[in-house]
Amino acid sequence: MTRVSQITTDVARAATLLKNGAIVAIPTETVYGLAALVHQEAAVMRIYSVKGRPTHHPLIVHVAKDFDLDKWGIFSSTARLLASEFWPGPLTLLVKRTAHVPDWVTGGRDTVAVRVPQHPMCQELLGLIPDALVAPSANRFGRVSPTTAQHVLSDLGSDVDLILDGGPCDIGVESTIVDCTQDLLQILRPGAITAMDIFTLTGRTLSDAVGESRAPGMMLSHYAPTAKVELYESQDEAAIRSSQLNEMGTSYQHLYFEDVNEYALRLYDELRMADINGVKIVLAVLPEPTRIGIALRDRLKKASHRQA
Ligand code: TXA
Ligand code: MG
User: Fold this and answer.
1) Is residue 194 within 6 Å of ligand 1 at its C-beta?
2) What DSSP assignment string belongs to 162-184?
3) Rg of the Cα atoms in the chain
4) Ligand 1 neighbour 33 (Cβ under 6 A)
5) How far is the centre of ligand 2, averaged over its atoms, from the C-alpha of 195 (Å)?
6) Is there an atom of ligand 1 within 6 Å of 218 CB?
């Protein structure tokens, strides 16, 4: 398969390939995912190997919007409420799994992460397959998530069988993950749906993620470009640093958008551009910790911790 024919908008072709055990990059409203049918063990194992991701890091199960909740997990009344309000959308619910969910998806855990994506092309695809799809972000392990088909192509190239092009992602950062397995809800990964949104709906306060292995893969250094990412609380602080860097002759790039949604949309592309432009340092000004700004601060902090 040549690189040119690898990118397509043909959803039926993607569905046929997936049913035959291929791995296909798919658009979602958050970021692009690298998909395989949940019950195709060899294809799921290929995803781990292409990503370079440890096999005990569990995957999110993506399901069609009319799916049967009870088939995949044990959903509490609160989990059902969250599902009915926010699905399809950028929310992943962690629940106890059923026997229908294979070990190779959950890393042998007794829980499963489930999400109903909103992207129309992704929903159309899910409607054409007899199973659900696992879909981790379509990037190499520890690197920046892709928000366009072109990002996937430049990262994973011919290691994936097909890339379904649904245009740039609407949100730009990964889904919020909420652990619903215990009485106290916990946010394991912040995203576009915030603790405040969940409190407003359920009247329940949430705790922050605690413990090391709540969501394996949520390590400190993640979402990292090769350039060093420095964080600043204000534009003024970043300006002081940029004059120092000018004096030293060190290459750098600014990262800030006034509009927090635009910041989310552009974040990963800007981090990629820093590497493409070969700059040494990204001077990132943190957004206010409200709405999706909370998720942006989380990703920027992870991007600022360099890989070992
Ligand atoms: O927005 C998203 O969620 C994207 C798009 C493609 O849907 N997907 C995504 O998948 O971000 P991934 O694999 O890059 O991140 C999923 C996170 C990982 O940190 C994983 O450890 C956690 O979800 N996770 C999945 N299943 C879990 C489980 N059973 N228990 C704890 N954490 C789990
Ligand atoms: Mg990821």
Assistant:
1) no
2) EEE---S-SS-SPPEEEE-SSSS
3) 19
4) yes
5) 21
6) yes
CA distance 182 to 203: 16
Using alpha carbons, select from 44, 41, 98 the residue that is nearest to residue 71: 98
Report d(CA 203, CA 205) in Å as an integer: 7
CA torsion through residues 182, 186, 187, 188, sign: negative
Domains and CATH numbers, the chain: 7-208 (3.90.870.10), 228-305 (no CATH)
Structure tokens at 199: 């409190």
Nearest to 122 by CA among 176, 76, 60, 70: 60
Report the alpha-carbon distance of residue 160 to residue 116 in Å, rounded: 23
Atom of ligand 1 nearest to the CA of 216: 21
Dihedral of CA 247/253/259/264: which sign?
A: negative
pLDDT tens-digit profile, the chain (308 residues): 444 569 999 999 999 999 999 999 999 999 999 999 999 999 999 999 999 999 889 999 999 999 999 999 999 999 999 999 999 999 999 999 999 999 999 999 999 999 999 999 999 999 999 999 999 999 998 889 999 999 999 999 999 999 999 999 999 999 999 999 999 999 999 999 999 999 999 999 887 665 444 555 555 567 788 999 999 999 999 999 999 999 999 999 999 999 999 999 999 999 999 999 999 999 999 999 999 999 999 999 999 987 54
Q: Around Cβ 239, how many Cβ atoms within 10 Å? A: 13
Angle between helices 149-156 and 260-276 (to 10 degrees): 30
Residue bearing tokens 């800007």: 270
